[in-house]
Amino acid sequence: MNKNITLVAIAVASLFAVQTASAQSTPMNGLSARVGAFFPTGGAAKAESKTWLAVGLQYKVRDLSFATKSPTYKAHVAVSVDFYNRNDYRVLPVLVNYVADLNEKFFYTAGAGVSFSRKPAGGGTKQDTNFAYTLGLGYNLTTGSTPVFVEGRFFGNDDSSLNGYGLFVGVRF
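User: That's the sequence. What structure does it adopt?
Assistant: Structure tokens below.
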């Protein structure tokens, strides 16, 4: 297993362990963590592997009370960082997101920002900084003190070879 994937997996697992242990006394409110798979749509990236490990963190920055259309519709601004990697490919999108809860179960998100990436080029690797965006739909499996959710996202990038879909399971703190 790639050293970077291992380090990210350990960091996410540590975050879950620390948060679960402290959730009973002082929840962090607004933090969510997700882990899943990324499915590249681009030729060379897809040829590398059809499924990559993907992890992400998101933090709710501000509620948007002006966006409330009904008692069940709630919206907020969040910042997120995701990481998906396979061999010489590495993508780290950092995004500002609009997140809306349609009701207690369904939510959607749209975000834009910058992507820090690395990919094979000319016998070595090439690092780039590109515009990135995401569109996603999610479903809250459980509610309460530590909600669990599933989410599907499309990750777009100026470098279309790094575009793809992500499927995640996550938890909110």
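The two ends are 29 Å apart (CA to CA).
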